[in-house]
Amino acid sequence: MSNENQIVYKVLTSSGSGAGWQEQGRTADMNAARRKAESLHSSKKFRSVKVDKEFMDGANDRMVSATIFSRDMKASTGVSIYLLLALAACGGLVSFVVTLFLTGGNF
């Protein structure tokens, strides 16, 4: 295979802090690049991971790049569903007590 048609797969990571994408490796093997990206994603050290496929288009004399794999970490709010349910229940109870107080117990 000539250099003009050689395909390179780049594994890129982002910390999400505005630093952009950092290359973590490159290979000619798509499956190896994907495995490495999945491993980096599983490590939870990076906010985003992707694999870009790059090759030279000799007919148009240009470099072509396409993302073939991408994973992002889910944003965590730090608030669990149980806390939200407890707050909703407390809000309902407070509303009931305030209503009871304002009406003097007369419905």
What does it look like?
This protein has 107 residues and is α+β, with helices and mostly antiparallel strands. Helix content is 34%, strand content 33%. The chain has 2 domains: 3-72, no CATH class; 77-107. The longest helix has 23 residues, at 81-103. The chain is rod-shaped and about 85 Å long.
User: If you average the pLDDT, what whole number results?
Assistant: 87
Number of separate helices: 2
- Helical content, roughly? 25-40%
SSE series: EEHEEH
- % residues in beta strands: 25-35%
Shape: rod-shaped
- Are there runs of 5+ residues with pLDDT below 50, and where? none
Features:
single chain, 34% helix, 107 residues, alpha+beta
Provide a compact summary of the structure.
The chain is an alpha+beta fold. The chain is built from 2 helices and 4 strands; from the N terminus they run ββαββα. The protein folds into 2 domains: 3-72, no CATH class; 77-107.
Helix and strand topology:
Elements: E1 7-14, E2 22-27, H1 30-42, E3 48-57, E4 62-72, H2 81-103
Antiparallel strand pairs: 1-2, 1-3, 3-4
